[in-house]
Amino acid sequence: MEIAFYLSGLVAVLATLRVITSTNPIHALLYLIVSLLAVAMVFFALGAPFAGALEVIVYAGAIMVLFVFVVMMLNLNEGVAAQERAWLGPRTWLGPVALATVLLLVLITTLWRGDVDLVIEGETLTAKVVGTTLFGPWLIAVELAAMLLLAALVTASHVGRTSSQPSNTRSGES
Amino acid sequence: MSWLTPTVVEVLIAMSQALVILVVVMLLGAVMTVVERRLLGLWQDRYGPNRVGPFGSLQLVADMIKILFKEDWIPPFADRALFVLAPIIAMASLLLAFMIIPLTPAWGVADWNIGLLFFFAMAGINVYAVLLGGWSSGNKYALLGAMRATAQTLSYEVFMGLSLMGVVALAGSFNMREIVAAQQSLWFIIPQFLGFCTFLIAGVAVTHRHPFDQPEAEQELADGYHIEYSGMKFGMFFIGEYIGMVLVSALIVTLFFGGWLGPWLPPFVWFALKTAALLVLFVLLRASLPRPRYDRVMSFGWRICLPLTLINLLLTGAVILLVSPAGN
Fold first, then answer.
1. What is the interface pTM, i.e. ipTM, of the complex?
2. Which domain holds residue B295?
3. Which of A27, A66, A127 is the closest to B113 by Cβ?
4. Count of domains for chain A
5. Is pTM, for the whole model, over 0.80?
6. How many Cβ pairs within 8 Å bridge chains A and B?
7. Residues B224, B141: contact at Cβ < 8 Å?
8. Which residue of A has its CA nearest to B303?
9. Between chains, do A174 and B125 touch, taking CB under 8 Å as contact?
10. Are residues A82 and A30 in the same domain?
C-alpha cells in the first residue's frame, strides 16, 4: 500500500499546483477535483475506505459540483484569463512562497526529528468502527457540528424565503 | 506450468469474470436501446423499428454502423479537452459502479465493505459528465440542459443516499453481499417500502430518464447537454444512459428484491429475471408518464421525497431499537 500512498500523494500535490497556476477557472476547479480524488486515494491507501468514500461523495461529488456550477454560470471569458495571468507574476507569489517555505521547513524538520518509522499498515477501518467512535467519545463534537449545520440551514432558508416572496404570492398554490 | 500457482489462477479467474461482466453490461446497454424502441412501439400501437433483419433484430447493428462512421465533429468554439472528457466520464463512472453488484454467490467483481458508498461516489462523479459536457459545448441550450441536470441530480442525490440508509441499517452493512444475505427470510421491499419508492424515483432522476429528463427535453431544449455531440461521443452519452438504467435496476434488485435469492431456478436466472422486469418498468414509465414542469420536479424532490426518506429512516431506527435494544 505504500506505493499507492506515495503515488496518490504525488498526484494530489501536482494537481494542487495546477489549481494555482491554471488561468482558466473551470480547469483550475477540475484540477482541484482531481486533487480531492487523490486525497481520497490516500485515505484508501491508509486503510480508511469509509473516509475515502465520503471524501469522494461529499467533496468531489457534491461541494465541488456546486463550485463548478457557480463558476459556469458566471460566464468567465478571456478577460478573466488575462487577469489571472497578471496575478501569476513573481511579484504576487514571491511573498507567500517565502512564508510557505518557512512553514515547509518547520514541517520537514519536525518530521525528521520525530518518530517517522511508522509503516503504512493498510488495515481497514470499517464504517461500524467509525460510527461507534463518532457517537461514543466524540458525541459532543458531532452534536456541535449538527447545531452549526442547522444554523446554516435556517439561515439559508430564511435568505431564500425573503428573496422569493413577491413571486410566490402570485402562484401560491403549493 | 510452474507459474500457474493457485494465486495466479485466482487472479486470472477474477479478471476474466470482470471482463465478462463489463462486456455483458455494455452489450446489454446497447441492446436496451433497441428493446426500448420496440416496447415503446408496442405500447403506443405502432411498429417501432422492424425493417432491419427478422423483427428488426439487426437494428442494433445498423445503429452501431451509423454511429461509428459518422463524422466526429468538435465545434470550434468548444473547450476541446473537456468536450472529449465529458462522454468518457459519463460512461466510465457508471460502468465502474457495476463493480459492486454481486450477480450470483460466485460472480461479482468487487466485494467491499464500503460497497454501497462506492455507488454513491460514482453517481456523484457522473454529474460532472453532464456539467462539463454542457459547459464545454459553448452552446446556450447545452448550458441550460447542464444547469437543469445538475440542479436535479444534486437535489435527488441527497435523498437517494438517505433512502438506502434504512436498508443499510437493517442489513447492518454497506457490503452488497451481506445485504443480499440479510434478505434470506424477507425481501427488503416489504419493511423498506418507503425507501424503495424514494430510491426508485431518485434512481430514475439520476439516470435522467423519463419523466425526469428535463435536462434533455427535446421540445424545449432540443436535446440539452449533448446537443453539440455527434458520432461516437454522442454514442457514449447515449449508451451511458442505458448503462445507468441497467445499473439502477440491478441495484434495486440487489437492495430490495433479494438479489439472486429465489426458489427452484439457479441464482443468475433469478437475478436476470428481476433486473429485466425493472428495465421494462423503466421503459413503461417513459411510455406512460408525461414530463412534469421543471420547478415541480425540484419541489417534489425537496418537499415530498426528502421528508419521506427522513421519516422512513427514523421509523426504521426506532423499530430496530425496539426489536433488539442492545443495538446488535
1. 0.81
2. 72-323
3. A127
4. 2
5. yes
6. 72
7. yes
8. A174
9. no
10. yes
